[in-house]
Amino acid sequence: xxxxxxxxxxxxxxxxxxxxxxxxxxxxxxxxxxxxxxxxxxxxxxxxxxxxxxxxxxxxxxxxxxxxxxxxxxxxxxxxxxxxxxxxxxxxxxxxxxxxxxxxxxxxxxxxxxxxxxxxxxxxxxxxxxxxxxxxxxxxxxxxxxxxxxxxxxxxxxxxxxxxxxxxxxxxxxxxxxxxxxxxxxxxxxxxxxxxxxxxxxxxxxxxxxxxxxxxxxxxxxxxxxxxxxxxxxxxxxxxxxxxxxxxxxxxxxxxxxxxxxxxxxxxxxxxxxxxxxxxxxxxxxxxxxxxxxxxxxxxxxxxxxxxxxxxxxxxxxxxxxxxxxxxxxxxxxxxxxxxxxxxxxxxxxxxxxxxxxxxxxxxxxxxxxxxxxxxxxxxxxxxxxxxxxxxxxxxxxxxxxxxxxxxxxxxxx
Length: 414
Hints:
6-stranded mixed sheet; 5-stranded parallel sheet
């Protein structure tokens, strides 16, 4: 055990010696670390959770255990591990537990450490950490920091441009970067090696299916699970229902389909957006729109004969809204009017609808503009909301229609 922990200390020190992009965040790191609550950093695989945790603790005396390590899991003995941490990291103030969900019974052990007064920083790649385990054992004991792939803003930071202070001479570069991000996404490992994006994300996608879903849930029919994942990534931004999916893919059971859909959300691979309705029962019955955590997965996995730029932009806007804290269960929906006009995103604050967001890649065609404006205005009338925005690729203006004023903004301003 001591040898494993010493080797992990070398790994920790080597990781901390590398240069990193400081991620943008609304949270105060010092405030987080000074809290006795568990700091839980969650998000998809390979988005930089471990890096973020290391940067938070860089100038602190902290112990480190990485559970994405077969040797540690094989030799695991909680009491022995804690004694060895005292030997290897004398006087440590914090413990960083990396990918702790790989340890069976991790929640009970973490709860025990918390009761002993240990100041814990935890990373994990599974949304279930925030549901059953966290809700039952660690309720009220943790603060969540959710991480996603680089935002457009952070992608610009990486390329030494400030998205909010673009000079006229930067505009060509900014348009190229915006298009690059739209098509290839923001996974940190490939932002500087775009030629590797498709092969890297293809492998990562398969790894998530096998390691985080099939293995964790002991899925017997991995072929069906993989077929569902491929179908969802190819039909991103489209409405889907478990009944239709079961029929389309020839699955034996609608319940199995629902279960597989939930499994694919757990590692933050897919999100499902409900259709807004004041009646919860009707909302639950309507098809949900499917989104993928990063546009790069679409480029690497989706079966498509066209660029799908409109849907890529919509997916990008969706993930940006998730990044801002909107939640698909409570505060973000799509809506379809009585005349079947649709608005992409209904943003709610409490019982109040605060904003409607429509996404349209290119509105230069008058027919396209009329369709998008008519849709958002009709939905605004039914939902009694006057804060309207249409996000485009590179169009900035204001449109007035009846009593409504609509802000048209390019994605890099949104």
